[in-house]
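If it is no trouble, can you show me the amino acids of a protein and the tokens describing how it folds?
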Amino acid sequence: FSEGLKVFGVSYEKDAGEAKKEGLRFLVEGLEKQPVSGISEIIGELESIEEKISRFGDFFSEDGPKVFIGQRNPFVKNENLAVIGSRYRSPGGREVVVLAVGPKRMNYQKAIGVFKGLAIKAKKSENKINIKSDKKSQKISTKNGRRK
């Protein structure tokens, strides 16, 4: 995800309050004209991104990705950054927020396409689990030849 989009990627599982983060080097490389002090500030904000997602993760719905640019960004306030994010249900039914943090000049079309692909995959996984659950409950309800 991070390497393909050349962004800093975050996957945050709300129930567990845990995040997986990767791609910091892609973010830093994309900010080549940013002074060192600015990069240091950004890294400081990224260290507390879990707390920000837990507070602001409800901005996202499962309807599709949202884009925050520059200072209007509640996750990393920096005029040179943008965040694209969305919320999904994992195959186990857990709520997951996924963010892509990159420079304002990132490839938005590609990133939004990736987020839409994640949504399709999440829906397919959810449907497979629902089908398995339905089959399992049908077996239980017809046990001993009787419907319950």
In short: Confidence is low (pLDDT under 50) at residues 129-135.
